[in-house]
Amino acid sequence: MQNYSLSVWARCSLGAVGLEGADRRTATMADGKGFTCLMVILILGNIFGAAAGLALCALAIWVAVDQFKLYPISGVSGKDDIFAGAWIAIFTGFAFFCMCVFGILAAAMKSRALMLTYLILMLIIYIFECASCITAVTHRDYLVGNSNLVKKQMLKYYAADGDSGSQITLTWNKVMKEVECCGTDGPVDWIEYNSTFREKFGTDYPWPTHCCKRKNNYEVVNVEACKNGQNTTMFTKGCFNHIESVFSRYTWAISWYGFAVLMFMFLLLILAMVYYLML
Amino acid sequence: MSRSILVIPALPFHIMLRSHESHLFSTAMRTMFIFFGMLFTLSNAEFQVSLLKESDGVVTGRFADSLLLSLPPCALATQSVTLEYNNTDTNESKTLVNIFKVLPCRFRRDIISTIENNGQFTTSRNLGYQVTNLTTGSTYRLQYVVGAEKSNILEVSTRQVKDPNQIDSGLPARSGAMVVITVILSVSMFILLVALIVTVAHSLGGD
């Protein structure tokens, strides 16, 4: 099996080189082994590319749906291109799928016009997908490179009035309840810095009551102990680890998987250009 | 506890008498008195007071407007406690008289009371005393007075509340992933564009 595939590659490359060296007229009409071999490779590559593009579309839909409901943290800060990249990837993923199917057709029909259309459209989609990958990973660096942006946003917008304030408050309450954490790096954030929460509610409660442990009926276990900061009655770990891991997961889905698809498409397009030259 | 400390100096006094040198004897007496005097104050003062730390089961002992202090030892049980503190910046003193009674040794250390109720039994634990109504970012000297005993003077400051607008939320650093993805994708885009132009030009030129 291995010998056979090696010889296929050898025949393909020899065929391609041989044809390049030959006369132009004979090359366009050549139907040598190298040519057929390249056509087969192109068709197989396009089949695989169609599958990869569809998977990219599906993965990008998962990111856009945002099951962890952390979009407001990026939305309010203005650095929400992880999700913009996901939306672009939905369309480019599906477009890759369509174009690869078209590419199978174009390669099988040995038509120059179709192959040229294929190449130009694939290049346009390629460029959009590049944009999606790069912007997603750059905005992830802004958002969760360190905990400062998330902390500043929490202090400023938690319990604030207005649309941003309510979104951030709801998001943080949800995170603190589900992940069992308090503050960005820890509850000390709430007493170390001034905040909208402190200005509104004074210093009686050093941190929101969502930091306190609750019973199954949602009643706080011990409010006074939570106010004093006793470890057993409140959550003492910070929420940043969770937030960072969620955004990183979304980003790796869009940018690294998109990168992998693009590298594959790069090789496919180079081969398609060689094939086009041989037509 | 104080009794055991007083026993020790008796030995050198005894040794000194055997030397029969008068000036040595008088200096020895003076040293002894000073030594005894020091021991007397040491045994009289000095139970320890400190801020509560994470190992005591709280998030922090220093808040912006209050402090959590540890409690006097249970050996001084049933005596009432007075707290004297002094703001070193404004130099105003305050005395809180008879704030609580030292709880007996049956229970563990005291006052910030945890009541754990799991529906079957309730346990109370007391951790410390919270001094409230303090000013932010000031240094205080605090001392317990229990009957005739005083604690050491604890010098500690409340937290200075910082302005969140001073947090630098700019781009911290570019991660390796970002650099790799950007560079490789940009280069590949460029190569593809050039290759397409060459391909089209070649095919047009060839016709």
UniProtKB/TrEMBL annotation, chain B:
Segment forming the signal sequence: none
Transmembrane parts of this sequence: 177-201
InterPro entries in alphabetical order: Uroplakin-2
Keyword Disulfide bond: no
Keywords: Membrane, Transmembrane, Transmembrane helix
Record keyword Signal present: no
Protein name: Uroplakin-2
